[in-house]
Design the sequence.
């Protein structure tokens, strides 16, 4: 009995210390999440204005905003960008993103993956580890695991610029991005979106009437679009990363909260077991004493 | 007129100004009150804002865009260095 008591005591201790860790991780994630969410909010006005500008340009001119990046070619080579976190312990977050990536490969690029014409660009250590193991045929441009430690627009732009340059050079004809879209701390949606070629941007008539103004375009409309479209693409790409970053911390926060609660339940059960064992030991000892005394008297 | 300066990471400036000088892609120019509606691409160079009270604010940008409409100026820039 004594050995059992000691054993239970040991388990209580270990659960308690695990709970301390999960609680601390939850707090850290909560504060990181706040910062990541703020980055998304700070970026939104810029992205909105940029898109507005595009609408203004398109609605004040004839024709559509097709550009170099809107060119639809027959798809012979493709690029898949998979954005996950660097670290685990965030529930099924990374698994879900990777699952979305696998689904995209199956539905869109299955023949290309067979023939080795699908390149996978991973951002984040988890997706890198996964695809390194499973897709030996897929060549990687680079792994970009360090990007999350300094998630500035400039750093991210380097990646998106590279993707755009490769597309322009004809090294691939289509590009999808898989990432974790951030809804709120508890909900992250793994999403797979087409990054390139961009869908043709045409002005629909409702917007035209609203924004009809006599704009001056400097230097001219075509050059302006050539500058604006890459900027919009870069901003979009930046958003994918910011979203994934916030999602990661949201997912970790939720996971760690659940873990803390589970530990609480375990502790409760263990305490009951412990008290029962203690009571049992006491009862046994008492009955031994009583039994011994009775034997002496008799 | 009103000016707002935005980068992908933060809001750099917002407020009443009397003029703003910017590095257009084909050369520097200045926007004053009642400028015609305009969209322009910007190159590398300094931006000089003269605020309503006469205060100056100068910073450098790498590239960006400006939109002027009805005395509302929006400056969307990248690589701001103050």
Sequence:
């Amino acid at each position: 009995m004594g050995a059992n008591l000691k054993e239970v005591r040991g388990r209580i201790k270990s659960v308690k210390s695990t709970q301390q860790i999960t609680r601390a991780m939850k707090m850290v994630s909560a504060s990181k999440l706040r910062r990541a969410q703020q980055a998304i909010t700070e970026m939104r006005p810029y992205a909105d204005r940029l898109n507005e500008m595009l609408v203004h340009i398109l609605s004040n001119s004839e024709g559509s905003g097709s550009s170099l990046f809107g060119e639809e070619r027959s798809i012979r080579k493709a690029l898949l960008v998979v954005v996950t976190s660097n670290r685990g312990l965030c529930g099924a977050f990374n698994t879900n993103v990777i699952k979305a990536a696998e689904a995209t490969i199956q539905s869109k690029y299955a023949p290309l993956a067979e023939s080795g014409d699908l390149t996978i660009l991973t951002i984040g250590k988890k997706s890198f580890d996964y695809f390194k193991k499973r897709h030996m045929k897929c060549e990687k441009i680079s792994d970009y695991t360090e990007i999350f430690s300094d998630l500035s627009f400039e750093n991210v732009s380097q990646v998106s610029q590279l993707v755009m340059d490769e597309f322009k050079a004809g090294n691939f004809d289509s590009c999808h991005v898989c990432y974790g879209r951030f809804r709120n701390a508890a909900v992250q949606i793994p999403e797979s979106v087409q990054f390139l070629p961009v869908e043709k941007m045409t002005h629909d008539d409702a917007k035209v009437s609203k924004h009809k103004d006599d704009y001056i375009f400097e230097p001219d409309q075509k050059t302006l679009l050539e500058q604006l479209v890459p900027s919009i693409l870069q901003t979009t790409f930046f958003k994918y990363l910011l979203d994934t970053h916030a999602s990661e911390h949201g997912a970790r926060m939720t996971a760690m909260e659940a873990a803390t609660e589970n530990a609480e339940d375990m502790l409760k059960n263990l305490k009951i077991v412990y008290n029962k064992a203690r009571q049992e030991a006491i009862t046994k000892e008492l009955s031994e004493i009583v039994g011994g005394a009775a034997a002496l008297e008799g | 007129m009103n000016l707002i300066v935005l980068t992908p990471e933060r809001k750099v400036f917002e407020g009443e100004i009397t003029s703003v000088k910017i590095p257009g892609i084909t050369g520097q120019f200045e926007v004053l009150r009642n400028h015609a509606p305009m969209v322009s691409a910007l190159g590398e160079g300094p931006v000089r804002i003269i605020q309503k009270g006469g205060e100056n604010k100068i910073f450098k940008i790498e590239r960006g865009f400006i939109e002027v409409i009805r005395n509302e100026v929006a400056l969307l820039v990248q690589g701001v260095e103050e």
